[in-house]
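Practice problem 4.
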């Protein structure tokens, strides 16, 4: 098995919790799994992450932000994702390319195709084999974050509600644009149900 699976969605959609549960389930079946996240995933990429998400960096320009995400992604691919795929591992990645398309391309207004083009340069055209979209109303996601003391609030969480609605709509539009690799999961269900749905989607698309 050699698969690159990405987990996408808005703030508080629960994807990171589901990711851990899926990893455990696949490993229990003997699948060799690498769990990683963006922005970050390697020391250099994590340093870039700190610059992007720093709440003090309010002056950050939207194109700078998009380029930093793409730079972090590149480093992550080179050091971690490509080697793992080459070794036949299954890579589960918390956010990837589609987050840049939805957040920087759509919600920040840079244009999905423009952001795609810098990302094609960064990734040399590496798309995920499967993308699970954890779809949730932003009001519910943000309420979950507010209730969860363990989850640190970052610069993007602080955006207005309208921004998060745009992000959601952009992800849904991406699911239509790339139906061959997208599965939409209803993230408003209970955690065990969401985990089950995500697991089934992975198994059905094997
Ligand atoms: P993180 O703390 O990992 O949040 P989450 O648990 O929601 O994934 O922060 C990542 C933030 O970066 C999140 O607000 C989404 C944003 N982001 C982009 O805007 N573009 C990107 O390309 C990526 C990977 C993330």
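Answer key:
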């Amino acid at each position: 098995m050699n698969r690159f699976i990405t987990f996408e969605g808005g703030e508080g959609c629960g994807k990171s919790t589901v990711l851990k549960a899926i990893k455990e389930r696949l490993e229990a079946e003997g699948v060799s799994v690498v769990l990683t996240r963006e922005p970050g995933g390697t020391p250099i990429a994590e340093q870039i992450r700190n610059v992007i998400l720093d709440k003090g960096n309010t002056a950050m320009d939207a194109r700078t932000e998009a380029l930093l995400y793409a730079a972090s992604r590149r480093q992550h691919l080179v050091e971690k994702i490509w080697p793992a795929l080459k070794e036949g591992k299954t890579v589960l990645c918390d956010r990837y390319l589609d987050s840049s398309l939805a957040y920087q391309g759509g919600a920040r207004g840079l244009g999905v195709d423009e952001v795609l083009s810098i990302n094609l340069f960064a990734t040399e055209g590496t798309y995920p084999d499967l993308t699970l979209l954890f779809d949730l109303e932003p009001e519910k996601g943000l309420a979950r974050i507010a209730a969860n003391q363990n989850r640190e609030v970052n610069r993007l969480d602080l955006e207005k509600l309208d921004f998060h609605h745009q992000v959601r709509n952009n992800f849904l539009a991406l699911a239509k644009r790339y139906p061959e690799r997208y599965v939409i999961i209803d993230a408003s269900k209970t955690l065990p149900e969401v985990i089950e749905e995500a697991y089934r989607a992975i198994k059905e698309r094997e």
